[in-house]
Specification:
The structure is a single chain. The protein is mainly β. The chain has a 7-stranded parallel β-sheet with strand order 1-3-5-6-7-9-11, with no helix packed on it. The chain has a two-stranded parallel sheet with strand order 2-4. A two-stranded parallel ribbon has the order 8-10. The chain is globular. The N and C termini lie far apart (about 45 Å).
């Protein structure tokens, strides 16, 4: 039976969670799993394999924070991040080179250093929120911070990138 009361996967002090579960192929979250807010340090780091065999099914939309090295060198191959995500920590997906994201959640505000470094399968072309197209506040909707090397060696298949005016810091 699912326990839908957990708010955190991983632990910043002990680097726990699903760390180094190299034979892990699928993570399934029940559709009604609504309390998960954080994936902490090393939550799924080194899990799955480099063939892209770490599928995440029904990734809870309630996740707001993906921490330091949460999916570092994992075989994760998802195409979307949770819609409530606002923060991507340093090296969150570093070397997750099967990650095939095509868009980012509209509420994502912070992408810290090396978050997508060496994620060569990325297909994103737009970053930030075009504040000229809506009356919504850029601070409430759209990327405001992209840290150093956040997309280094990522998206080798992306020919053009559009940076919208919500971005106030680009390293």
């Amino acid at each position: 039976p699912a326990n839908s009361s957990y708010e955190v996967i991983g632990d910043e002090e002990r680097s726990s969670g699903f760390y180094q579960m190299q034979k892990l192929n699928t993570i399934y979250f029940p559709e009604d799993y609504t309390s998960l807010k954080y994936i902490a340090e090393n939550g799924f780091a080194f899990s799955g394999n480099t063939a892209g065999n770490l599928d995440i099914v029904n990734f809870p939309s309630t996740i707001e924070y993906i921490g330091y090295k949460a999916f570092f060198m994992s075989g994760v191959s998802m195409e979307e991040l949770p819609q409530n995500l606002t923060y991507l920590g340093p090296e969150a997906f570093y070397f997750a080179y099967n990650l095939k994201l095509t868009t980012l959640p509209s509420g994502l505000q912070y992408i810290l250093n090396d978050a997508f470094n060496s994620c060569g399968a990325l297909q994103m072309t737009e970053f930030g929120y075009d504040t000229t197209q809506s009356e919504m506040s850029a601070m409430e909707n759209g990327i405001v911070y992209i840290g150093p090397q956040a997309f280094m060696s990522a998206g080798d298949q992306v020919p053009n990138v559009t940076l919208h005016n919500s971005i106030t810091h680009l390293s």
